[in-house]
């Protein structure tokens, strides 16, 4: 089946959201557009928008390729999507509170106890504790894929430290600089206000110890982290300090940062450090990335950590397979956004089916990310499938499998004009006393023809994502 083309409908021609853009594009000189692509690359390189590729000595710092054909979503389409995203995010927060308290969903038989308490992302240190404001996932990236005119699926939930928002903002800034006439012709909802929304959202979840305007800081593992550019970008755009673990210490019952005027207490710490490295007294003793004693201060109401420790269990792909039940359990409603049908390899019947149909399925590690540790059946070799079959038999609970979806396509500017490529979408959601969904998000595109893998670490690129005003 031919994938759904979001710009060029098979019989009806150009789809409504793309009409103005398509007219503009047909009037452009192809050579000038190629020059604009080179101009965008130069801008990204000057700005320092790179990401690190671990284990790749020849190209440890790379630019994420940018395609200048935007992904355009109609206002009504976005309204439906946003309703589903908000429902899902509220259910995720309710689920996280429940599993660290009464575990009603487990006692109701909706989610297996072993999937919670046997999960490496489930933190005993969070049991019985409620974070300030009752918010666990302050910043969430919900990965979506589209298969036809009406149907979007949630591919996965990113509830720990979702990345990519800096590329969303820089992509928009680049497009507005290069093609101001396009934004005069199209009423596109803004994304560049994200840092201001993020700061306000973090201020609203200040801890009980806060006795004035909340002091916010961004905690980074340092310059060698793959997302360091984003950490520095967000701290700068919010007007807050970018700190490393060595800049912080426990002073008078508070986590304080070193300044030129002495130590200053932090109220809200937007951490981009994994749970295991956050506090050497509570987790890995050898960690030098975190702050000794921060978990005790956190539990005593002296600081807000965003996102809360222990939220990683919501990223688990086995938990993901129960999201329809989770949404219904906590909201009393049917999920407005569907999951991709998922086979849990921990279940004997599902494992047998997956082993018999490896060439048709996408198999993923339950804790995997970045396109690593997965098998794309239709493009795999016999040897790769045999290797994965052995892994599945050895540790079936470590994997889930899904059908290979015909992901929608959006054209890219190729050498011979427009050429369709598969895309996904990561909208960014901010949670405090309200849910704020940024209109659009990061569209990732598989630049290799026919490829379904959009991750930047696997050669994917990005696009500006437009949500139109109705």
From TrEMBL:
Signal peptide: none annotated. Pfam families: CP_ATPgrasp_2. Residues 70-446 form the Circularly permuted ATP-grasp type domain. PANTHER family: BLR5612 PROTEIN, SLL1039 PROTEIN. This is Circularly permuted ATP-grasp type 2 domain-containing protein.
């Amino acid at each position: 089946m031919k994938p759904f083309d979001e710009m060029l409908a098979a019989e009806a021609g150009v789809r409504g959201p793309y009409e103005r853009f398509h007219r503009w594009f047909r009037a452009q000189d192809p050579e000038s557009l190629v020059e604009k692509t080179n101009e965008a690359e130069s801008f990204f390189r000057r700005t320092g928008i790179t990401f690190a590729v671990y284990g790749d000595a020849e190209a440890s710092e790379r630019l994420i390729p940018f395609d200048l054909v935007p992904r355009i979503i109609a206002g009504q389409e976005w309204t439906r999507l946003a309703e589903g995203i908000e429902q899902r995010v509220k259910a995720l927060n309710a689920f996280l509170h429940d599993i660290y308290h009464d575990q009603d969903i487990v006692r109701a038989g909706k989610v297996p106890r072993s999937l919670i308490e046997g999960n490496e992302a489930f933190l005993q240190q969070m049991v019985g504790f409620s974070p300030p404001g009752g918010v666990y996932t302050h910043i969430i990236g919900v990965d979506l894929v589209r298969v036809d005119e009406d149907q979007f699926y949630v591919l996965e939930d990113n509830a720990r430290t979702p990345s990519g928002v800096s590329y969303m903002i820089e992509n928009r800034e680049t497009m507005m600089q290069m093609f101001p006439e396009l934004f005069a012709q199209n009423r596109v909802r803004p994304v560049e206000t994200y840092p201001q929304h993020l700061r306000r959202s973090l201020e609203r979840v200040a801890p009980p110890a806060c006795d004035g305007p909340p002091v916010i800081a961004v905690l980074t593992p340092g310059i060698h982290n793959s997302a360091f550019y984003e950490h520095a970008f967000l701290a700068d755009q919010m007007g807050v300090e970018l700190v490393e673990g060595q800049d912080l210490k426990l002073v008078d019952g508070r986590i304080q940062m070193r300044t030129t005027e002495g130590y200053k207490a932090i109220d809200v710490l937007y951490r981009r450090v994994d749970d295991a490295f956050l506090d050497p007294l509570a987790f890995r003793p050898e960690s030098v990335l975190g702050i000794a004693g921060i978990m005790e201060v956190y539990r005593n109401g002296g600081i807000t950590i965003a996102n809360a420790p222990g939220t990683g269990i919501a990223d688990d792909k086995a938990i993901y397979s129960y999201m329809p039940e989770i949404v219904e359990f906590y909201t009393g409603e049917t999920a407005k956004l569907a999951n991709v049908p998922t086979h849990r390899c921990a279940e004997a019947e599902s494992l047998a089916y997956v082993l018999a149909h490896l060439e048709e399925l996408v198999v993923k590690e339950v804790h995997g990310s970045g396109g690593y540790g997965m098998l794309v059946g239709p493009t795999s070799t016999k040897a790769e499938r045999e290797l994965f079959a052995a892994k599945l038999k050895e540790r079936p609970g470590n994997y889930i499998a899904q059908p290979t979806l015909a992901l929608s396509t959006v054209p890219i500017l190729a050498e011979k004009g427009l050429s369709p490529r598969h895309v996904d979408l990561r909208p960014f959601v901010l949670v405090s006393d309200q849910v704020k969904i940024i209109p659009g998000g990061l569209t990732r595109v598989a630049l290799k023809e026919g490829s379904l893998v959009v991750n930047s670490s696997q050669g994917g690129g990005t696009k500006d994502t437009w949500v139109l005003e109705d």
